[in-house]
Amino acid sequence: MHHSYRRDRISTLSALTVSPGRGRLGLYVRFHRKNITGVEVLGFLRHLQQHLHRPIVLLWDGGSIHRRAIVTEYLASSRSRFHVYRFPAYAPELNPDEYVWTQSKRYLANDTPKDIDELSENLRVALGRVGSSQRLLKACLQLSTLSF
What's the predicted TM-score (pTM) here? Predict the structure, then answer.
């Protein structure tokens, strides 16, 4: 058995989107090779804001990264664009994004990438497969117990 004993990492921000007018689903993802801070969350929110031209309803888990001062200040200043609702603590079954990861992990099962670059590419492919399938994205929404 080969083991590299490295502590490389890929941290990910992702959002499942629903277009109320067209009924179209989307998946936005950003990878980082370090731990995510409020700066990366802020960058992701700005990215969403550039691509989504209507008000954004943001459903968030209780992660502390979402409550960083830089993030809460930005959301407060962008109140006309972002409407934030928090999931209850310890309720991943409500979060459709958790099911996106469940679907992606199916593509990654038994994968043994040789390095962080190969892992990154495998993640991109796995999430790309889910994100390009309206059927899979719809299943992620339906599996969550949220009512839309």
Answer: 0.86
